[in-house]
Amino acid sequence: MDALAAAFVWFDYAAVAVFGATGALAAAQRKHDIVTFAFFAAVTGVGGGTMRDLLIEAPVFWVQRPSYIMVCIAAAAAVWVFGTGPGRMRVLLWLDALGMAAYSVVGAAKALALGVPPFSAVLMGVMTACFGGIVRDVLAHEPSVLLRREIYVTCALAGASLFVVLYVLGVRGLWPGAAGFAAAFAVRAGAIRWGWTLPAFPGRGKAE
Asked: Where residue 137 falls among pLDDT bands split at 50, 70, 90?
């Protein structure tokens, strides 16, 4: 395995761990037991990647490498032990931003590596980054990330798009991944910090 491939594997594990932690934090919000912590962590950590692999007809990654589920369980255990302090929701938001940014790149990179066209690879990056969080919010009975006014899916779209564009232009090494991650995280950080939103549909106003 070359250095670039190894870097993406570690990037992938880091994203799974971070997303897994957000799932466990969502379980903590509802005061669930340790088994539910682990379940939330696993579903959130591998949900987006599972959907991506099914859509591109690739072997589901965590079936081939159960260590991904073990990483989710470890993240759940860490939250169980250390995640009881104040500001838990704020931590969840920032961890989710990190996981989303990482997964937007990892998902697009795997799709490109398997011969998926660039446009579809961008969509796979967005799917990988967002689907696990959607499932987590549904399980936790929280408002879905898709229904919040703050920018979210757009952040994943920005990161995956920049990565794919740089890759198609021939930029190699860690630069496309680093640039895509930075773009996605920067936009999401602005949305968290300053409440950035896209323009809403104005509608027709009230009926007469």
From this structure: confident
CA distance 134 to 197: 19
Give the separation between CA 199 and CA 12, rounded to whole angstroms: 33
Report the C-alpha gap between 70 and 147 in whole angstroms: 31
Separation of CA 53 from chain center: 15
In the three-class reduction of DSSP (H, G, I as helix; E, B as strand; rest coil), residue 113 is classed as helix
Are 38 and 55 in contact, with CB atoms under 8 Å apart?
A: no
Domain segments of the chain as ranges: 3-194
Helices (H), ranges, the chain: 3-29, 34-55, 61-64, 67-82, 88-113, 118-139, 153-168, 175-194
Sorted by sequence, the CB contacts under 8 Å of residue 148 that are 6+ apart come out as none
What does the chain come to in residues?
A: 208
Global pTM reads 0.85
